[in-house]
Amino acid sequence: MKRFSLICMLVLFVASITQAQKRYDQLKFPELNQFNQPDVEIFTLDNGIKFFLVEDRELPLIDVSVMVRTGGVLVPNEKTGLSSITGTVMRSGGSENYPSDSLNALLENKAASMETGIGFTSGGAGMNVLKEDFDELLPVFIDLLTNPAFPEDKIELAKTQTKSGISRRNDNAQQIGYRVFDQLIYGENSVYARNTEYETVNNISREDLVNFHKEHFVGQNMSIGLVGDFDSDAMKSKLQEAFASIPSGAGTELEFPEVDYEYTSTINFINKSDVNQSFVLLGHLGGMRDNPDYAELQVMNQVLSGGFSGRLFQVVRTDMGLAYSVFGQYGMNTFYPGTFYAGVMTKSATTAEAIDAIIGEIERLQNEPITQEELQDTKDQFLNSLVFRYDSFEKVLNQRMSYDYRGLSENAFDEYVEGVKATTIEDVQRVAREYLNPDQMEILVVGNKDEIGDQLQKYGEVNEIDISIPQPGSEQKVVEGDAEKGATLLDKMSEALVSPGTELNSITLEGEVVQFGEQLPGGQMSLQTTSTIDYPDAVEQTVQTPGGTMKITYADGQGKMSMGGQERPLPPQMNQNLKETLNRSYLAIAMAENDINPQYTGTEEFEDKTYAKLSVNVDDKDILFLVDEETGYPRLMRYQQFNPQQGEQVQIEERYSDWKTVDGVAYAYTQISFSGDQKASETTYKEHKVNQ
């Protein structure tokens, strides 16, 4: 009986759950509480600084935000990156009265924060402090804003970090896609699409940072907002006294060049061999924020690509199963036109099919009116999200300051809301027809050329784009010397390394590598390695790391790395480095002596001994060997290599000693590598095996 009762209870419970389950559009929610927007008190000092005050007594905190009329748009092409580095070093370098270490300690002790930064269209700074510390830290914040120290070491650190970012900018297919798409729309040399390069960073000096800051961080360019636990009248007096000494200066005019754009249909491709899917963007120039059709275009944009409910998601991803992700946006900027794009991440084999599906949905939006349900769902999603727009006083203040900075009315958002409410089915179709050009779009695909095949040819002549990163100083002069003596010297070195009659197909090496560097724990790290090189262009290496065994394989220009059961392809730059390492090794050069034009260029003293200088060119790079004319063994190899962190060519030197011969092949059992003046690694081999 008890069991029967329990079963009845379970049946009733399940039935109640079943009845309770409803579609999302059947759910009923209570009305949201009304959010009362706070009053914003605005006043301006004689020096031009405009203040926005919002009282918020909920927590004993005061938050200060500064907007400065400046930005990367003002920086000349040859110094691209200056504004960003200026904004970084303002904070990292501290001020004249509060050097970085002292400032960091002070803020940590007070549980406070101060930040600075400069973007493309504006600069900014912020401070968050406890109410009780505000009077003490406000002068510190003003000193940071107006008297940054710009120490050389922090400038060099910021430049190094910027260069490190440049070196990794081709690692991610999406980042590549967005960057190059902007160049297709705005123009490769446009201020709206230019890249920060090693050379432009190298062009930046401390004087540039000082002058850029001095010109723009003045009263006429500043807007300052405060929200927190304070009395507005008392705070107003404090701010007038604290900021009155900042010079008014000359107001900065932000000049945004016009975009010279012609609608056209192109197909563009970037080969990224280490991916198995395509990242696709297609679109054209977008619009401006002051367009009278702004609200209607945003509704259209939401219908087409508004997340899970958008047509692109529903059709391309859900119905057709063509996408890992699908997205889009009709961008409308304040200062210069945005971009319209639709994008997808899809399998390599379905690249063209996904492109066709997206174009089809854009055309359908123009040719068929949307349904009343789609329109209402879109409006509901937008209107229901408004609660998150003004859910804090900070958001209210930031929005008000942003509108003021961009020259929009304080009612701009309310007008936008009313425009969305008033948008009709006919409006959506009208703006789709007027502003979208599916037959004149730039199509960009980032993917694996071997896997995509000839799918893209249907769209026209494919423009393959080179995204290689310019390396300053990579041009090398042709080394001229005594070619006849160079050939004799190379022949002697080759016979010393690979005995006549010996056929070298592979070599296996076992040893220990000690790497040196400030970033390593204790300044160094020891690794056990086993490598097998199959000539001319394949290698397999196993490395015992502190985190486990790592295996690297490379052949035919492609490599992969596996560790902990995970495998991933090597990025193109690492593949290139492996190729060059294999080609310039002394054994590879010895076996390729008939294909190399060697030059004897004299002698050089090294460690109290005279060596012959042998110059060879491999992969368009000059490599110098110091060769012992008695034994034929190379004592060292020297060449130039680009260092991404330094953004310049550095001299690499490898020193060889302790030669041992096995089965007619000699190998240096001690190899020490230097990068510039710094010791980079020391390798000690235990044994080498030939053709095994």
| Principal-axes shape call | globular
Strand content: 25-35%
pLDDT < 50 stretches: 1-19
CATH class of the largest domain: Mainly Beta
CATH superfamily of the largest domain: Lipoprotein localisation LolA/LolB/LppX
- How would a crystallographer describe the biggest sheet? 13 strands, antiparallel
The averaged pLDDT comes out at: 91
**In whole angstroms, how far apart are the ends?**
78 Å
Structural class by sheet pairing and helices: alpha+beta
Total strand segments: 27
Assembly context of the chains: single chain
Q: What share of the residues lie within helices?
A: 25-40%
CATH-derived architecture of the largest domain: Clam
Question: In short, what is this structure?
Answer:
The protein is α+β, with helices and mostly antiparallel strands and 692 residues long.
Task: Spell out the key features of this protein.
Cytochrome Bc1 Complex, Chain A, domain 1, MPP/UQCRC_Complex, Insulinase family protein, Peptidase_M16_C, disordered N terminus, 692 residues, metal ion binding, alpha+beta, 3 domains, outer membrane lipoprotein receptor (LolB), chain A
